[in-house]
């Protein structure tokens, strides 16, 4: 494996294992949603209510084509609600319901547990350096994706 492929492979593998671990812990709570659905709930919690599907896609990293069905499912589950966009009838604005806020709090507790295990054996300064490096990688990937879409 060449020097550039290894990092990408490791990030992909970590993401898969981390997601499985998160879902395993989440299934032991009273949460009614999956880890993938939790990305939408967390996005609404972190970036505020009244987001369009495009904004949720941008902030969560989820593809627009998979997002539509997930939003419908979350709305059916009473975790989110939608209203018509006030100026663009083609769009909807999505918000967490009170039940959705309760549910996303369960996921936050699971995330804390996952994070504790994720960084086991790391010193605080190692975590800080590692996360700064990940942010640089994210910026590189976002820049490349943006230029490829232009």
TrEMBL record:
<keyword id="KW-0805">Transcription regulation</keyword>
<dbReference type="InterPro" id="IPR036388">
    <property type="entry name" value="WH-like_DNA-bd_sf"/>
</dbReference>
<dbReference type="InterPro" id="IPR000835">
    <property type="entry name" value="HTH_MarR-typ"/>
</dbReference>
<dbReference type="GO" id="GO:0003677">
    <property type="term" value="F:DNA binding"/>
</dbReference>
<dbReference type="InterPro" id="IPR011991">
    <property type="entry name" value="ArsR-like_HTH"/>
</dbReference>
<protein>
    <submittedName>
        <fullName>Transcriptional regulator</fullName>
    </submittedName>
</protein>
<keyword id="KW-0804">Transcription</keyword>
<dbReference type="InterPro" id="IPR036390">
    <property type="entry name" value="WH_DNA-bd_sf"/>
</dbReference>
<keyword id="KW-0238">DNA-binding</keyword>
<dbReference type="InterPro" id="IPR023187">
    <property type="entry name" value="Tscrpt_reg_MarR-type_CS"/>
</dbReference>
<dbReference type="Pfam" id="PF01047">
    <property type="entry name" value="MarR"/>
</dbReference>
<dbReference type="GO" id="GO:0003700">
    <property type="term" value="F:DNA-binding transcription factor activity"/>
</dbReference>
<feature type="domain" description="HTH marR-type">
    <location>
        <begin position="1"/>
        <end position="139"/>
    </location>
</feature>
């Amino acid at each position: 494996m060449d020097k550039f492929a290894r990092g990408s492979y490791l990030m992909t593998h970590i993401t898969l294992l981390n997601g499985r671990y998160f879902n395993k812990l989440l299934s032991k709570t009273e949460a009614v949603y999956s880890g993938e659905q939790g990305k939408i709930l967390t996005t609404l919690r972190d970036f505020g209510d009244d987001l369009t599907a495009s904004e949720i896609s941008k902030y969560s990293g989820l593809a627009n084509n998979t997002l539509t069905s997930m939003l419908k499912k979350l709305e059916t589950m009473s975790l989110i609600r939608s209203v018509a966009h006030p100026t663009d009838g083609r769009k909807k604005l999505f918000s967490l319901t009170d039940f959705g806020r309760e549910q996303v709090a369960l996921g936050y507790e699971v995330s804390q547990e996952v994070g504790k295990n994720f960084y086991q054996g790391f010193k605080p300064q190692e975590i800080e350096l590692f996360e700064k490096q990940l942010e640089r990688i994210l910026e590189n990937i976002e820049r490349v994706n943006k230029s490829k879409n232009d």
